[in-house]
Amino acid sequence: MTDTGIRALGGDDPRRIGAYDLLGRLAPGGMGRVYVARSTKDGALVAVKTLLAEGAISDTDRRRFAREVKLARRIDSAHTARVLDADAHAERPWMAIEYIPAPSLAELVRSAGKLPAHAVHWVAAGVAQALVTLHEAQIIHRDVKPQNVLLPQDGPRLIDFGISHANDMTRTQLTLGTIAFTSPEQARAEHSTRASDVYSLGATLFHTAVGRPPYPDTSDTIRLLTLVQRGELDLKGLPKELGALIRPCLAADPKDRPEPAEVLRRALAELDGFPTQQRGAGWLPPRWTSLIGEYEAQGRALGKSGGAEAPTADMRTRKVPPPKPTRVYTEDRKRADGAPRRPARPKSPTPRPSSARKPTPAPAAAGKSASASAPGPAAPKPSPKPPSTSSSSSGSSGGGFWVVLGIVALVVMLWKPWEHTGADGSPGDTSSSSASSSSSAYAGGGVGSLSSGGGSSSGSGGTTYSPPPSPTPSPTPPSPSPSPTPVASRTPSADDVAFSAVRAGDCVDGYANGYGGWSPTSPDRVDCQAANAYLRVGSVLGSGTCPSGPGLGGWWHTATDSSSVNLCVERQFRVGQCFLARSNGGRPGGANLLTLWSCGANRVPREFSFIMQITAVLPASAGTRACPPDPGHYTYSWQVYEGRSILCTKVA
């Protein structure tokens, strides 16, 4: 359970395990898969871990899983995730673990910055107490790292015993852990002991306080492994008040490291000078508590949604870093402003009857009215109009049109597309360049609601529409010309290689840039658990169009050999991200859900007027009333993932 993000159930995932209905898939854990599920007995949310194996499950794998269940059942601590149920002898062995909707230390440091010294002592006390409990049960964790420490408001939880073993199994495979937080003896494939866990705790606390692992910065895995094996540390930046706590834990010789109980004693001694606080709000900075609160809010919303309907959607709850403003505001904008725009031509949305009334200007008054009458002062259903070419072009279009037309004609004559078979390029392509374009899906304004102190009142449902794919121009048959001469420029470009490497099921770092294109210009494959996994590829086409709808689109590319690739992509929504929306009557209207924008930006592309921030991604069964309120302001929601989920947003 090293990742609290909820992903869609795949075709090879069951819908029920034991007495638990599966809602989505969490990150892989150790030797299995981990799902978030709901108990059919009491409706409680749990994390269900299963044994992952291709084909028949071997007796050896069953014995290992049974041993893991047995070890985990030994532990009952407020600082670990408890095992609630298990069946090691089922056709697909499983165990149900306490579900903790909280970010990890790794996510908190990445998104909210490093932690003050006094708060590090508080975290250290909780994790050290967990290790004391494990070691008393003769269990060595072997994989203590920031990703395996969740931090809800009531204190840290040490999770993922997938590679924990009793003391009679002392060998550790390095691939099961994270090198930067592994002890030197583990990195040398030697025996792991309780002191190994203490070293990993010290490395984790250093990362929490400084924002990096305790080694010289390097991107070379082999070099990092060598540094860890030799214990060559770089402790620059460690606050002096944390030296007595962390430095002894990082001793190269295991015999020189303190026991977890001693680490606990030292941490508590430092906390004695502070008022007693049992919850994180008393120790943690506001940015940390804010992120923790968002995780807990989504956990509560998921718990209240009821039923066992699987969302089959990516419901990652963690914040992600916004796109770099320099890339959005300079490179993309310069390219977009200097290139001809090809306007999208969306089909007219079919309006649905709405009983929504225009709210009064004062938010407090409107909120009061909402609770007094039905259906309440919901935000009017936005009915986006097809964008006009004038609204998305800059400057005068008269002379610029003829200049662009002349350039296109010249390029076509030089390129001679009729001499190449299978051409599927965009205007301006040449035989030595590649092109990509977005087929962005726009969604109507969705459901609007005014949030007051007591909740929100929802309006009418949203209408969605998508722009049809632009037709491929058919060149006029030319006069006979000599056979083409092969050109050396047909060697695949870097973009060609990037597009050809993408497969269905991959996740890529890419998003619509708001100016009619993509950023970056070619897809970069990333792990689907990564913070920058903005798009998931549903299929890869050589021709044809991709499915359309909110958050769906096509990223197509014409290679130097005139072959085409069309990546059918779906946006992966996460709490904290922002996207762009148009204006409709002074409020958010049609949104391009494939865009990603800096939430704190003070500029948007000319086509848009609003920056919308995601506050939750919920199952459709939860309803819009489950969206987090924004007191005194309207909130908006869209149906995404083909109507299976609700995207809750507010104006950033």
From TrEMBL:
**Pfam families linked:** Pkinase
Instruction: Supply the SMART domains for this chain.
Output: S_TKc
Basic and acidic residues: bias regions: 329-340
- Output one GO MF annotation: protein serine/threonine kinase activity
Q: Where is the composition biased (Gly residues)?
A: 443-462
Gene3D superfamilies, per database record: Phosphorylase Kinase, domain 1, Transferase(Phosphotransferase) domain 1
Q: Which domain of life is it from?
A: Bacteria
InterPro entries hit by this protein:
Kinase-like_dom_sf, Prot_kinase_dom, Ser/Thr_kinase_AS
Residue ranges, annotated region (Disordered):
302-398, 422-494
Per the record, where are the segments of Pro residues compositional bias? 377-387, 466-485
Compositionally biased spans, kind Low complexity: 353-376, 423-442
The UniProt keywords, alphabetically, are:
ATP-binding, Kinase, Nucleotide-binding, Serine/threonine-protein kinase, Transferase
Stretches assigned to the Protein kinase domain = 20-269
Does the record bear Kinase in its keywords? yes
Q: Which PANTHER family match?
A: MITOGEN-ACTIVATED PROTEIN KINASE KINASE KINASE 20-RELATED (PTHR43289), SERINE_THREONINE-PROTEIN KINASE YBDM-RELATED (PTHR43289:SF34)
Q: What is this protein called?
A: Serine/threonine protein kinase
Q: Tell me which species this is from.
A: Streptomyces yunnanensis
